[in-house]
Amino acid sequence: MLERQRGISLIELMIGMLLGLLVSGIVVSMFVMTMGSTRQITSSIRLNQEVRTVMDLMVRDIRRAGYWDGSLAASNPYASITEAGAPAAVFLAKGSATHLTNAEGPSGSCVILGYDTDNAGASTATKLIGYRFDADAVEVLWANTFVTPAHCNMGTWSNLTDERAIKVTALTFTPDPSPASFAAATVRNLTISLTAEAISDSRINTTITDQVRIRADL
Fold first, then answer.
1. Angle value at C-alpha 53, between 134 and 204, nearest 5 degrees
2. What integer pLDDT is reported at residue 182 of this predicted model?
3. For 208, phi and psi rounded to 5 degrees?
4. Which residues in the chain show pLDDT less than 70?
5. Which residues are CB-contacts of 195 (< 8 A; sequence separation ≥ 6)?
6. In sequence order, which residues have a C-beta less than 8 Å from that of residue 140 and are 6 or more positions away?
7. Shortest CA distance to 103 belongs to which of 189, 171, 186, 33?
8. Where are the beta strands (DSSP E) in the chain?
């Protein structure tokens, strides 16, 4: 006797489709979450790399401010290229002629410095470097000619950070000498603080702080 063949009912078919949709929804949701997490991680890595690179550049240059490959230290043309009578000076802001000499005073958003970048030992200072905060970016100045004293509104400045990837929200340079006067200090330190966020998500942000000593300023 042949057994009667029986297919699935409409209710069973609908239950099966519902279960399939639930599984598909879970898979899609997990995929979207993974993609979102990957984007956040990528943005965070990019942000930290960009900020760290910029900070390292500033620290390296500020540390070498006043360096000169000449034979007589007293003839160093980089010893006092700024209004502070120093190889490096912090200014209140872009375009400001006010340099900060008091450790108790406010932080500045611009620093100007000079050193013998090509080890030429020339008798005239020709290498000038500047870093400043402007709008949403860190700007840099590299100049081969300049007037003395140097200031934060001279020359042609270029963006150092990529505004398509990160937004710089704060950059401060704080003189931190042992004496009360920054201009009179024999060993000078600067505290640099840089804050930025990812363009794709402002919740992804970071702040790094470094302290740098001007080694040639003795």
1. 70
2. 52
3. -125, 145
4. 1-7, 35-36, 83-84, 94-106, 146-148, 177-187, 217-218
5. 168, 169, 170, 171, 205, 206, 207
6. 57, 129, 130, 131, 157, 158, 159, 160
7. 189
8. 88-91, 110-113, 128-134, 137-143, 158-159, 166-175, 189-198, 205-213
CA 74 from chain centre, in angstroms, equals: 34
* Three-class secondary structure of residue 60 per DSSP: helix
pLDDT in tens, 118-161: 888 888 887 889 999 988 999 999 887 766 677 788 888 999 99
- Sign of the CA dihedral with 67 first, then 105, 84, and 135 last: positive
Pair of tokens at residue 158: 């270029």
Predicted TM-score (pTM) of this structure: 0.76
CB 157 within 8 A of CB 132: yes
pLDDT at 102: 46
Strand 189-198 relative to strand 205-213, pairing = antiparallel
Secondary structure (DSSP) of 152-209: TTSS--EE-S-TTTEEEEEEEEEE--SSSBTTT-SS-EEEEEEEEEESS-TTSEEEEE
- Token duo for residue 131: 């870093």
Among residues 132, 128, 15, the alpha carbon closest in space to that of 78 is found at: 128
Instruction: Return d(Cα 94, Cα 171) in angstroms, integer.
Output: 12
